[in-house]
Amino acid sequence: MIRASYRNALIDSGLDQNFLFLQEQLLSLGLKVRDIDLVINTHEHLDHIGSNRYFQESSFIAAHRFAATKITLEDHYVTLYRSGDLNEIPLRVHFWLENRSLFDLGSHTLEVIHTPGHTSGSICIYEFKTKVLFSGDTVFAGGALSYIAEYGSVGDYINSITRLEARKISKIFPGHGHISQNPEQDLSQAIINAKKLLNGERTVSVSPFRPPIHGSAS
């Protein structure tokens, strides 16, 4: 969550079933759903997009173009989501993002960094003022990695983390787990882990929420 002088941005909306908790957290900050101007999805998986529908009528939803097509088409083989409710509002993406897309929120500016690896449409969000990186499922504290999902690539993963290493980053806020207080060390370890993965060796990884697909295939 980034509160700025002009707009408020939320990085990932989380699971549908966790929306009430998210709403409580917003209220603790004196905010309501309608006060969120922008929701940025770091990639297309259910645990990052599941609550989009609660925001999309009053907020702009943004995702990398590779993720956006899967979200709007509700490609449940990729997003891991399928609703059994025929009356449920379809998911929308208002802005299709590219590498180095910028968002001016007033007192804070965000840059989109395309970081394919976990998925082809994975992105990280870099905030220039604080030098904070919101990494989604790209990299975690301690240099742990995520699994290689549909349309993902270990080679792309290594290239993505190498590009992140070139940034001046104060902290990394991942999509799961603890905050990285030592980004330089953790990114170096992440590259080591990714190369081990490429060589078929066991490595430290984080397994984000991966539920069964809801409903029955038709």
In brief:
The chain is α/β, with parallel strands linked by helices and 218 residues long. It is built from 6 helices and 10 strands.
Shape: globular
Rg from C-alpha positions?
17 Å
Quote the distance from N terminus to C terminus: 38 Å
Number of strands: 10
The CATH class is Alpha Beta
Structural class: alpha/beta
Any idea of the CATH topology? Answer: Metallo-beta-lactamase, Chain A
Q: Which strand order does the major sheet show?
A: 1-2-3-4-5
The CATH architecture category equals 4-Layer Sandwich
User: What about the largest sheet?
Assistant: 5 strands, mixed
> Helicity, in percent?
10-25%
Overall pLDDT confidence: 89
Tally of discrete structural domains: 1
Proportion of beta-strand residues: 15-25%
Output the number of helix runs. Answer: 6
Helix/strand order: EEHEHEHHEEEEEHEH
CATH H level, superfamily name: Ribonuclease Z/Hydroxyacylglutathione hydrolase-like
Low-confidence stretches: 211-218
Please describe the topology of this protein:
Elements: E1 2-3, E2 8-11, H1 19-28, E3 38-41, H2 46-49, E4 60-64, H3 65-72, H4 76-79, E5 95-97, E6 102-104, E7 109-114, E8 123-127, E9 132-136, H5 154-165, E10 171-174, H6 183-198
What does this entry look like structurally?
With 218 residues, the protein is α/β, with parallel strands linked by helices. The chain has one domain (2-198): 4-Layer Sandwich (Metallo-beta-lactamase, Chain A), CATH 3.60.15. The protein is 25% helix and 19% strand. It contains six helices and ten strands. The strands form two sheets. The protein has a five-stranded mixed beta sheet. A five-stranded mixed beta sheet has the order 6-7-8-9-10, with no helix packed on it. A hairpin with a 4-residue loop joins strand 6 (102-104) and strand 7. The longest helix is centred in the C-terminal third of the chain and has 16 residues, at 183-198. It is globular. The model is unreliable at 211-218 (pLDDT under 50).
